[in-house]
């Protein structure tokens, strides 16, 4: 396995220096966390499944004109992505009441929202990713007003597309988190979709039974976590033929 310089390690992924300037290798781990790292565990094969699911969804979004950082999948656990400057804002799109929204407003989980709601959180584990407004984002310089307009418009378009895609395989897209980055191309910079889209970052419920097929099974100790992730991949038609077998990460260069 090639020795690469590690750039960053997060809760679910490790980033390594890419083979070409302006590229990064994104390695998907089996580590699972919840409640801002207060709960930790391992979901066997999660990294393999999330790599495949995110590759598939990023590719489909690219096909409809959504700019992304994704270049190609390299192997079972790694993909090549463009190096971007991450905007320190998490965008949460909610279609159905669940999770923290249900707690905040005392609403019943599963309540259909009259329209999709876009929320923003400041990316900071130390501060528990606090909710923020558009005014915070522009006043503190996390994104310019024009960038924020692009992010919101792109998020709603992504939501429309993914809601239809998942509905076609019998799943409700309850809510999900997106991250965006600035990509420099020559002297120009543009906003692109970054990070990943997977059951780690989406709430997905079965249309008929409302069975949860996402990380809530880990958060809430519901069991069957590995099977839920595999079921999403199976419905998308991308479950690895050999199953989510393990693959070690690349050696890190000191």
Helix content: 25-40%
Largest sheet: 7 strands, antiparallel
Number of strands: 15
Q: What is the CATH fold-level name of the largest domain? A: D-amino Acid Aminotransferase, Chain A, domain 1
Let me know the CATH homologous superfamily of the largest domain: ATP-grasp fold, B domain
Rg over alpha carbons: 18 Å
> Please, how many helices?
6
Which of globular, elongated, flat, extended, rod-shaped describes the shape?
Answer: globular
Mean pLDDT: 92
Tell me the span between the first and last alpha carbons. 15 Å
Strand/helix succession: EEEEEHEEEEHEEHHEEEHHE
Report the CATH C-level class of the largest domain. Answer: Alpha Beta
* CATH architecture call of the largest domain: 2-Layer Sandwich
Beta-strand content:
25-35%
Unreliable runs: none
* Structural domains: how many: 2
Helix/sheet category: alpha+beta
């Amino acid at each position: 396995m090639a020795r690469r310089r590690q750039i960053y390690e997060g809760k679910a992924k490790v980033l390594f220096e890419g083979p070409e300037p302006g590229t990064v290798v994104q390695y998907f781990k089996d580590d699972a966390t919840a409640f801002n790292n207060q709960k930790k565990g391992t979901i066997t094969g999660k990294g393999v499944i999330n790599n495949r699911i995110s590759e598939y969804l990023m590719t489909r979004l690219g096909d409809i004109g959504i700019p992304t950082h994704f270049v190609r999948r390299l192997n079972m656990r790694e993909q090549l992505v463009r190096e971007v400057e991450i905007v320190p804002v998490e965008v949460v799109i909610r279609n159905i009441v669940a999770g923290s929204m249900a707690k905040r407003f005392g609403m019943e989980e599963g309540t259909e929202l009259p329209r999709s709601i876009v929320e923003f959180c400041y990316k900071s584990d130390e501060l528990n990713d606090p909710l923020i407004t558009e005014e915070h984002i522009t006043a503190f310089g996390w994104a310019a007003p024009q960038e924020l307009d692009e992010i919101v418009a792109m998020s709603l378009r992504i939501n429309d597309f993914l809601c239809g895609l998942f509905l076609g395989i019998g799943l409700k897209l309850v809510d999900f988190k997106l991250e965006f980055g600035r990509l420099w191309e020559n002297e120009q910079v543009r906003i692109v979709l970054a990070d990943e889209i997977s059951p780690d970052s989406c709430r997905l419920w079965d249309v008929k039974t409302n069975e949860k097929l996402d990380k809530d099974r880990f958060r809430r100790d519901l069991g069957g976590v590995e099977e839920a992730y595999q079921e999403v991949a199976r419905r998308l038609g991308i479950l690895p033929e050999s199953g989510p077998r393990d693959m070690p990460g690349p050696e890190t260069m000191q």
